[in-house]
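thread: overnight batch results

M.L. [08:02]
morning all. the overnight job finished for the chain we discussed friday. pasting input first so we're all looking at the same thing
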Amino acid sequence: MLWILAQIAYPLVTGAARDQVTVVVVLLAAGTALAHAAAVRGAAYALGFLVIVSGLGLLSEIAGTATGIPYGCYSYALDRLGPALADVPLVVPLAWTGGIYPIWVIAGLLVRRPAVRMVVLAAGAVGWDLFLDPQMVADGQWAWCVTDTGLPGMSHIPYTNYLGWFAVALVMAGLLTVWERVAPGDASDGPVGVAVAMFLWTWLGSMLAHAVFLGLPVSAVYGGLGLAWLGVGLLIRLVRGGNERIRFR
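M.L. [08:03]
and the structure it wrote out:
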């Protein structure tokens, strides 16, 4: 997958080249997620997913940078990741789509009750951010106003960030649950191989990258553990030869 190749290139470049690779990674992640969603459920479903996740992601980021709610006080480094709206690079909401989609699919693969799936997505989103935030802060893409109220070894990222992620992702999950019930298109079982590959690469590949190539061993541990409960459940299902399909409804 081109998305994986772009991620492999990320630690190999610096400066403006790394910024460009970051944008490419995000675009390819979102494109891969939406292409898979369209293939298994239809273009209308994929468009709705994009509107819900990237739309809410953008609104939350605009509110966050302007008011500090829901994530805490922070600001983006502008003119590095392309055009921005209200001081939020427009590539950022696409990152939400690329990152949330595989977690949403895996959550649906492992649990069937909609309410449980919603909580699983929110918790999984926080696990993903335990990789994302340390990596992007280390690269100078955004910075926090308060830098001493976070997890041990990552105090520069405040606890409010993770609470905000959980809350926003929970709202996304609620809207997605409704959308899956009313969206047009075939709601029959669909293959999940692409989403599974995206999730496993994000989990295992990020652990390797943070620990070995990016000099971020602490976030390698936190992020690895943050997604391990989902990843282990997925691997057990795969080893047992479970039916790797999910009902989109």
